[in-house]
Structure formats: structure tokens, C-alpha cells
Write a structure and sequence with these properties.
Layout lengths: L7 H11 L2 E3 L11 E3 L1 H20 L4 E3 L8 H6 L2 H4 L1 E6 L6 E3 L28 E4 L3 E3 L9 E3 L5 H6 L1 H8 L5 E10 L14 E11 L4 H18 L7 E5 L11 E8 L6 E9 L3 H10 L5 E3 L4 E3 L2 E8 H12 E4 L8 E4 L10 E5 L6 H13 L4 E3 L5 H11 L3 E5 L1 H6 L1 E6 L5 E5 L3 H11 L4 H5 L3
Helix pairs in contact: 2-9
The structure holds glycyl-adenosine-5'-phosphate.
Length: 460
């Protein structure tokens, strides 16, 4: 049990109300554990992905980008071990038709009596566990026969392995170097749930770093540290993050060593994996070399040797880490002097979907015109929301809940003196800024990752 409260129900309803995340095909009763990102959600997730791409590809000269296809040759999944090994043990209850993962049955509840575990209720009729492959199958071409079976990829990594030599030769990178990509992955999970935490369609941000065997554990440690720093830079609280080392019995079929980066989601969910850092040895390249019959060795001309590199993988779920940023950011506060509290998403300014709200204090005296002009100018630089409806306090609250870090208010003094108030979401402090400097000041705050008036006193 986490020291943090369970905010999932509050978050699910806020996410729907404000347009972050909707259930897929909701008007038809919803699709099991598939979610759609609304206007605010798509901005938030895009910002998370852009930040990852910036850190992993653009700021490094030893990592190249890739966007491989979802559908791959079926032999890829034989070589990778997914056809034979990517399975979970499944148990059915013949009485209530519920399905459980046999290895997680201790965490499940009996649908007929939630105070009991599956198997403990008098009516339960559990089957013996049987292995269930998590890959979605489909057919390529018009004929639905076994020869045309293809899979929706269950991880993006294999697109990188099969392109290892293409990328290396095209870019003339020398080992050690990495290949990174962001893309959809699909798993027919037996027990999806907890909102977007475990879904059947999700996005991964994966990077495979190819190193000379013998240097792998050193790179493994480096990437572990770098990835934890990235999560901290996203604004996740340090005390909500921890490493979890995989014991030999937990290791995936390809892994030589593995650490998860876990985030504390609060309540009974507590610490759960958001990213895996794996030492995959030369498992994948060796498998693809054998199954394809193509040599995938790296030729080190300077040292006059050739070898199959080892791979250090960093693999993070875009949806899961986006959910972590929302859980981390959600606050319900009492506001001194006010009867109603406020709900805010104290998101890191860089990933906030909307950067600034622009509000004329009243709908007269030229304030809306001045505010609309300012909003239009700012929109060229970052996402802005213009709102002139309702009391100013309510408009602030609406943007607090959307995670908007800055509120810009145009009041009677603005039209006279050509200046505005910038209100800070997190501490509700305010500063006065000349209109011509607003874009610059907010830009500086965004670049410096600050969103409090307190920070402004210390100088951005
Ligand atoms: N290529 C290695 C790999 O796929 P993984 O631990 O199975 O490793 C990596 O997945 C990350 O992908 C996880 O840490 C998680 O963030 C995300 N992920 C995996 N399955 C998921 C699911 N069903 N729903 C949402 N995210 C998932």
C-alpha cells in the first residue's frame, strides 16, 4: 500500500471531463482497455514523446532515429521467441466466465464476491492453467489461411534489430551507437486495467544501444542512470521513483540483466513498472542471423575484427509514463479564504498541453480586443486558450485543472498602460509584465522549467 492516495477514479473522471482521455468507442459501450486521447491528452502525450525524442535522438550524436512498420515478416516473431514464448498462463472460471492470469491470481478478485479471491467462492470452477499467446494475429492479403498470418507487433524493438545493419551502414555509425523509435505495440493482455496503465494497444519509446561484448554492463549502468534522470526531468517526484532489479526467475527470455524503473501510482497499485532497462546480450541479432541466413555482424575495421554487438535496451511506455505524469500532478487543495477548493494538475510546464490562458477581466473597455490580439500573437509560439466566459476565479480554476501553467489577465490598467498580469498555476502568485514582453517572459519560464511566482523573484 502506497503512502500516496489512490487518485485513479478522480483522474479518470477529470480526464474525460476535460478532454484528456476517453474510452474507445464509448457510444457502443466501449472497447476493452483501449483508450482515445482527446484534445488535451494528445498534446500532453505528444509533448512527452517529443521530450523523449529530444533527449534520446536529437541531443546525442550516437543515437539514430527510426520509424519501422507495425506489420513485419512472420519469421521475425519466430526468431525473436514471441511465437513460442510470449505467453501468459491463463485460468478460466467456468461458472462466471472470468479469466485470470494464473501467476497473478493472488492479486485478482472473484467477480461474484470481491472480498474473495478466484477459487475461494463456492461456485468457482477454475480450469487448469493453459498458455495463452499475447500477440494479435491478422492476415495479409485476401486469403485467410495459415500461410498469410501476420502479427501486430508486441514490441517496437524488433523493427530496430532487423534494421541494425541498414542504419549502421547508412549513417556510418561506429559501435557503440543506438537506434531509437516511437511506435504502437499491441498485446492481447489477459488482465488489462488501471486506466491506461495496461492496455491492449499502446505506444512504446524504445532505444537499442549496440555495444561491444564485454562493455555491456558498463553501458547498462550508464543508461540506467540516464533514464532515471529523464523521468526526474519530466517532473516525476524522486520519492515516487525506484529501481527494481529482476531476479533470475523474472527475467524475460532475452534478458541477461534487467532493471525496471517503477513509479508509485498511489493506493493499492503502488510502485509499478513504467520503463525497463535490459541487457539483451546478442540474443536478438543472433536469432535473426540464424533465422534469416544473413550475416548481421558489425565489422570493426580499425581493430580488424567482426562481432555481433550486445544490446542495452531502454523501453518506456508513452501511455504509461503519461499516466504517471497525470497521477504525479493531480492535487486537490484548500484555497485560503475560499469555500471551494481547487483541483490542479501541476504538470511540468514543458509537457502541459496548453501553456497559457488569456483572460480579459471584463467584456468591455477594449479588454477582449486586446486579449484576443495578444492570444493570437502568443499562439504562434505555444498553445494558448482564450476564455472570456464567467468569473475570473472560475476561469483560473478551469485552466488549473487543465494543467495550464500561466494565466494572463487583461484588466482596466492593461488598456491604459499596455501591461498584463501573469498568474502562476502552482502558487497562484502574480507578476506584472509589459504586453510586448509576455511571450519572452513565458518562453523563459518554459525554457527554465519554472512555473511559480516565487521562482520569478529569484530570477528565472
Ligand atoms: N522491448 C522490451 C519490452 O517491450 P516490456 O517490459 O514488455 O519490454 C516495456 O515493455 C514498457 O512498455 C513497459 O515498461 C510499459 O511502460 C510499456 N508497456 C508494456 N505493456 C504495456 C501495456 N499492456 N499497456 C501499456 N504499456 C505497456
Amino acid at each position: 500500500m502506497s503512502a500516496y492516495p489512490d487518485v485513479m477514479d478522480t483522474l479518470v473522471s477529470l480526464a474525460k471531463r476535460r478532454g484528456f482521455i476517453f474510452q474507445s468507442s464509448e457510444i457502443y459501450g466501449g472497447t476493452g482497455s483501449v483508450w482515445d486521447y482527446g484534445p488535451l491528452g494528445v498534446e500532453l502525450k505528444n509533448n512527452v514523446k517529443a521530450r523523449w525524442w529530444q533527449a534520446m535522438v536529437r541531443e546525442r550524436d550516437d543515437v539514430e532515429g527510426l520509424d519501422a512498420a507495425i506489420l513485419m515478416h512472420p519469421k521475425v516473431w519466430e526468431a525473436s521467441g514471441h511465437v513460442s514464448g510470449f505467453s501468459d498462463p491463463l485460468v478460466d472460471c467456468k461458472a462466471c466466465k472470468a479469466r485470470f492470469r494464473a501467476d497473478k491470481i493472488g492479486e485478482a478478485v472473484c467477480p461474484r464476491k470481491p472480498s474473495k479471491k478466484p477459487g475461494e467462492h463456492g461456485d468457482c470452477q477454475l480450469t487448469e492453467p493453459r498458455m495463452f499467446n499475447l500477440m494479435f494475429k491478422t492476415f495479409m492479403g485476401p486469403v485467410e489461411e495459415s500461410a498469410s498470418v501476420v502479427y501486430l507487433r508486441p514490441e517496437t524493438a524488433q523493427g530496430i534489430f532487423v534494421n541494425f545493419l541498414n542504419v549502421q551502414q547508412a549513417t556510418r555509425q561506429k559501435v557503440p551507437f543506438g537506434i531509437a523509435q516511437i511506435g504502437k505495440a499491441f498485446r492481447n493482455e489477459i488482465t488489462p486495467g488501471n486506466f491506461t496503465f495496461r492496455t491492449r494497444e499502446f505506444e512504446q519509446m524504445e532505444m537499442q544501444f549496440f555495444v561491444e561484448p564485454g562493455t555491456d554492463m558498463e553501458w547498462f549502468e550508464r543508461w540506467k542512470a540516464a533514464r532515471l534522470e529523464w523521468h526526474l526531468g519530466l517532473g516525476l517526484s524522486r520519492d515516487r521513483l525506484e529501481f527494481h532489479q529482476h531476479e533470475p526467475n523474472e527475467l524475460a527470455h532475452y534478458a541477461r540483466a534487467a532493471f525496471d524503473i517503477n513509479f508509485d501510482f498511489g493506493g493499492t497499485l503502488g510502485f509499478q513498472e513504467i520503463e525497463g532497462v535490459h541487457n539483451r546480450s546478442d540474443f536478438d541479432l543472433k536469432q535473426h542471423q540464424e533465422h534469416s541466413g544473413k550475416r548481421l555482424e558489425y565489422v570493426d575495421q580499425a581493430a580488424n575484427k567482426r562481432y555481433l554487438p550486445y544490446v542495452i535496451e531502454t523501453s518506456v511506455g508513452a501511455d504509461r509514463v503519461t499516466l504517471a505524469t497525470l497521477v504525479n500532478a493531480l492535487r486537490e487543495e484548500v484555497v485560503p479564504g475560499e469555500t471551494e477548493g481547487r483541483t490542479l494538475l501541476a504538470l511540468h510546464p514543458a509537457i502541459a498541453p496548453i501553456k497559457a490562458g488569456v483572460f480579459p477581466l471584463t467584456k468591455k473597455d477594449g479588454q477582449p480586443e486586446m486579449a484576443e490580439k495578444l492570444a493570437a500573437a502568443l499562439r504562434k509560439k505555444f498553445p494558448v486558450f482564450y476564455d472570456e466566459a464567467g468569473a475570473i476565479g472560475r476561469r483560473y480554476r478551469r485552466q488549473d485543472e487543465a494543467g495550464t501553467p500561466f494565466g494572463i489577465t487583461i484588466d482596466p490598467s492593461s488598456t491604459a498602460n499596455d501591461d498584463v498580469t501573469i498568474r502562476f498555476r502552482d502558487d497562484m502568485g502574480q507578476i506584472r509584465v509589459s504586453t510586448s514582453k509576455v511571450a519572452q517572459v513565458i518562453g523563459d519560464y518554459l525554457a527554465a522549467d519554472h512555473a511559480t511566482a516565487e521562482a520569478s523573484k529569484a530570477g528565472v
